[in-house]
Amino acid sequence: MTLWRPDPALIRRPAYLSLADQFARAIHDGRLANGERLPTHRALADELKLSVQTVSRAYEELIRRGLIAGEIGRGSFVQTQRREPDPPYLPERPGEVIDLSILKPVCEPMHLERLKQALGWLAETLPASSALSFRPNMVFPRHRAVAAEWLKLCGLEASPQNITLTNGATAGMTVALMSVAPPGSTVVTEAIGHHTLVPLARYLGFHLEGLPIDEHGIVPEALDQACQLSDIRAVFVQPSVINPTATLMGGIRRSQIAEVARKHDIAIIENDVLGPLLEDRPPPVAYFAPERTLYVTSFSKITVPGLRIGYLAAPDRYVAAVANRHLVSNWMATPMVAEIASKWVADGTAMELVRWQRAAVRRRHDIAAETLAGVTFHAHHDGLHLWLPLPEDRAEEGFVAQARLQGVAIAPGASFRISEAPWHPAVRISIGSTTESELRTGLGVVTRLLLGDPEHLLLAI
């Protein structure tokens, strides 16, 4: 049985969360090793002068976090093997919770009206090919030409023949990974990256490795060294603020990443779902390495969430692989949604909605700067979220749980953790997922939790 014990002087209300946080820090710091047996509920309760129910709730919380496992008849044991992470967002919005956990654009009744109008237009003008054809090449030639015009607004020149329409960015990045990373191969990405990459790697059978990042994004020297030490097939990057840390990679760093990829002849997958929402940004990584970059963008985070359509632009060497992988995994994008996207791109509606979104997001960032005064966080004025590092004495999951107790849902930073390197707790906060009033209230709760006395705040609940 372990020699480490929680410090009763550090227990705050609610006691079960405070106790669970102490265990979590001890596990993360290595003071409790994998496989160590924990005290029984009653023994620990007697030792700390707590109720057995409080200790039981603390252990249940640790089980929920995937840090310990209970075995009937044997007791509770530390379980530090990495499990598949939970989604960073709430699967549904319960009750009166202010949901700042899910990343989405600012939406108002105008967006629903625009989509209703587009559906009315579609009912009157739907082409037979979009309604009746099973052959992608019979449906999408016109849409690919429109897509090429949209990609110019994203800073990328691409031939229509090299563009695949997908049902959003997730489908696009999945097809891109399937096209360049066969089972058993290795893909590298940012140490704090896309939350779907870990399960995708497991499902598709490739090895995923997180590389060090700095204030400019993925470190080129780390990518170069990884390519020298391992047979890397691709690097997955999110250079334009959509990454969890809200980093905008500069043009010099983008060209450096492109050069390292060219040196080692690896593919680049670039996830750029915000596209032209970022008003002043460098050209895409694909601009610096067009011969090896598979570029993914979409509309759901910059226009209307229901417009689930995206573009995957691939260089000539990968066009056939992309077409084949897309056929077996999706067959084709939904034609009727593609019709609306193409109309909106062609008549300027899409860019009008992007400009509206940019103005709305900047107002939200003004609210965040005001409400979080005195708190250190990372953000970009055209991005959809904040990245907020926590103080050293705050356990991440405990902080998320405390915010949830006060009616605010935020995303734990560990949901985006790719690397096994030492971890600094943080949370991601969406600024577009609710009203301005609720955003101000939710950020106020976060600020009080960070700057106030947690015990006094929680006693008032």
Secondary-structure blueprint:
Layout lengths: L14 H15 L11 H8 L3 H13 L3 E4 L3 E4 L19 E2 L9 H17 L2 H5 L3 H4 L1 H13 L9 E4 L2 H12 L5 E5 L6 H8 L2 E5 L1 E2 L2 E2 L1 H10 L2 E6 L13 H14 L2 E5 L13 H4 L4 E6 L11 E4 L2 H14 L5 H13 L1 H23 L13 E5 L6 H10 L2 E2 L1 E2 L13 E5 L5 H16 L2 H6 L2
Parallel strand pairs: 3-14, 5-6, 5-9, 9-10, 10-11
Antiparallel strand pairs: 1-2, 4-12, 7-8, 11-12, 13-16, 15-16
Question: What does the radius of gyration come to?
Answer: 24 Å
Q: Approximately what portion of the residues adopt beta-strand conformation?
A: 5-15%
Helix/strand structural class: alpha/beta
CATH C-level class of the largest domain is: Alpha Beta
Could you estimate the helical fraction of the residues in percent? 40-55%
The averaged pLDDT comes out at 91
Given as residue ranges, the uncertain stretches (5+ residues, pLDDT < 50) are 455-461
Q: Tell me the span between the first and last alpha carbons.
A: 36 Å
Strands of the widest sheet, in order across it, are 4-12-11-10-9-5-6
Number of separate strands: 16
CATH architecture of the largest domain: 3-Layer(aba) Sandwich
How would you describe the oligomerization state of the chains in this entry? single chain
What does this structure look like?
The strands form 5 sheets. Strands 4-12-11-10-9-5-6 form a 7-stranded mixed beta sheet, with helices on both faces. A 3-stranded antiparallel beta sheet has the order 13-16-15, covered by helices on one side. α2 crosses α3. The C terminus is likely disordered. It is an alpha/beta fold and 461 residues long. The chain is built from 18 helices and 16 strands. It has 3 domains: 71 residues, Orthogonal Bundle (Arc Repressor Mutant, subunit A); 116 residues, Aspartate Aminotransferase, domain 1 (Alpha-Beta Complex); 220 residues, Type I PLP-dependent aspartate aminotransferase-like (Major domain) (Aspartate Aminotransferase, domain 2, 3-Layer(aba) Sandwich). The radius of gyration is 24 Å and the shape is globular. The protein starts with 14 loop residues before the first helix and ends with a helix.
